[in-house]
């Protein structure tokens, strides 16, 4: 008489589910959390749209206010940009 463990191991669905989980975890660990990286706005911040300003601040965990204007966001971006070293 088969036990519940015997019945579980003889089915294919749990095996494929386990294999999919292991494959997903392996892919995540190989490529890191930037599996689908979002693009960082490039160029002069003065020409960025409101959404690009919000994206730039969010990527740096600076928590932009949803009520902030584009001008206020640009001030925060300028204050947090790194100075180019020569």
From TrEMBL:
The keyword Transmembrane helix applies. Keywords: Membrane, Transmembrane, Transmembrane helix. The keyword Transmembrane applies. The chain crosses the membrane at residues 12-31. This is STE24 endopeptidase.
């Amino acid at each position: 008489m088969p036990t519940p463990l015997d019945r579980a191991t003889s089915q294919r669905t749990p095996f494929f589910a386990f294999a999919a989980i292991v494959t997903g975890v392996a892919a995540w660990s190989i490529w890191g959390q930037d599996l689908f990286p979002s693009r960082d706005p490039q160029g002069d911040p003065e020409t960025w749209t409101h959404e690009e300003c919000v994206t730039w601040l969010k990527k740096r965990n600076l928590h932009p206010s949803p009520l902030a204007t584009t001008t206020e966001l640009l001030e925060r971006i300028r204050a947090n940009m790194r100075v180019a070293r020569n």
